[in-house]
Amino acid sequence: METKAGLKLIKPVLELKNVSTYYPGKQSYFKKQKFNQANYNINLKLRPGEILAIVGESGSGKSTLGNTIVGLVDDFEGEFIFQGSNYNPRIMSDLRSEIQIIFQDSLSSLNPRMKIGTAIIDVIKHHHPNTDVTERMDELFFKVNLSIITAGKYPHELSGGQRQRACIARALAVEPKILICDEIVSALDVSVQAKILNLLLRLVEEDHLAILFTTHDLHVVESFAHHVVVMKDGKIVEKGVTKDIFTNPQNAYTKTLLQSIPEKVNS
Ligand SMILES: Nc1ncnc2c1ncn2[C@@H]1O[C@H](COP(=O)(O)OP(=O)(O)OP(=O)(O)O)[C@@H](O)[C@H]1O
Ligand SMILES: [Mg+2]
């Protein structure tokens, strides 16, 4: 996909300045607890209608970055700016409805004892109490290409692809500006992957949602993302327009990463 001309002119919906994240290290009775740094001075901008891919080897800090943005980690520093205003990720009321995160494991993301429809209705009622629930449910299920019959099922009764669509519908029920997708298609087969990716593309193009997307699949990144951030050992080593990164990588690690892409198998 070509980068949309003028994307750079749109004001960022999210900006991170020098964001670092720490995890608790070993603790003992006599020693003060140490913290291990996972991410270092991350700077990035995400714009409405943009798909930004975060790539890098396992352990490079991709999930940590997404989790930090939505306040799922305790220790961090730096500046978080949403639509021009600073926010504190640990204060949920600051951004709960604006930034949603979806994970690879759709089964454990959903309450096993709750029907899909009930889970989504709860979200609509909580975040948008004046909305016509039936109408909104129809809209959401149509948007994610799920039959409304699915609403009456439990998570374990759905396929992985259907469950991931349900997770997307639940996230959209909040009406967020940003969707963080952490490896959300990794566990799905290629044809289901493509359908979910097309769905995300539509959300970006029609609703100007901004998507931060982590994946190990560089073919997906090449065909799907507008911009790419390459991470190694918790640091950004290179970032830029997807086409530039893929045709003319500057960083040695990016070059190695791109050389490791397996040939695309045409089925
Ligand atoms: N909850 C945690 N507690 C302590 N350390 C953690 C925690 N989560 C991640 N880490 C550490 O932080 C670093 C970054 O991990 P992270 O999960 O962000 O990497 P990743 O790029 O998402 O990897 P993968 O591609 O395997 O998903 C790793 O060294 C990891 O061991
Ligand atoms: Mg991860």
Describe the structure.
This protein has 267 residues and is of the alpha/beta class. It has a domain at 1-98 and 224-267: 3-Layer(aba) Sandwich (Rossmann fold). It is built from 9 helices and 10 strands. It has helices at residues 62-69, 106-109, 116-127, 133-143, 160-173, 190-207, 218-224, 242-247, 252-259; strands at 14-24, 35-46, 51-55, 75-82, 85-86, 99-103, 178-182, 210-214, 227-232, 235-241. The strands form 2 sheets. Strands 6-7-8-3-9-10 form a 6-stranded mixed beta sheet, with helices on both faces. A hairpin with a 2-residue loop joins strand 9 and strand 10 (235-241). The radius of gyration is 19 Å and the shape is globular.
Structural class: alpha/beta
Number of helical elements: 9
Strand order of the largest sheet: 6-7-8-3-9-10
Average pLDDT across residues? 92
Shape: globular
What is the first-to-last residue Cα distance? Answer: 21 Å
The largest sheet, given as strand count, sense and whether it forms a barrel, is:
6 strands, mixed
Strand content: 15-25%
**Name given to the CATH homologous superfamily of the domain at 1-98 and 224-267:** P-loop containing nucleotide triphosphate hydrolases
What is the CA-atom radius of gyration, in angstroms?
Answer: 19 Å
Using the coordinates above, name the CATH class of the domain at 1-98 and 224-267: Alpha Beta
CATH architecture of the domain at 1-98 and 224-267: 3-Layer(aba) Sandwich
| Number of beta strands | 10
Helix-strand pattern, N to C?
EEEHEEEHHHHEHEHEEHH
CATH topology of the domain at 1-98 and 224-267: Rossmann fold
Give the proportion of residues in helices: 25-40%
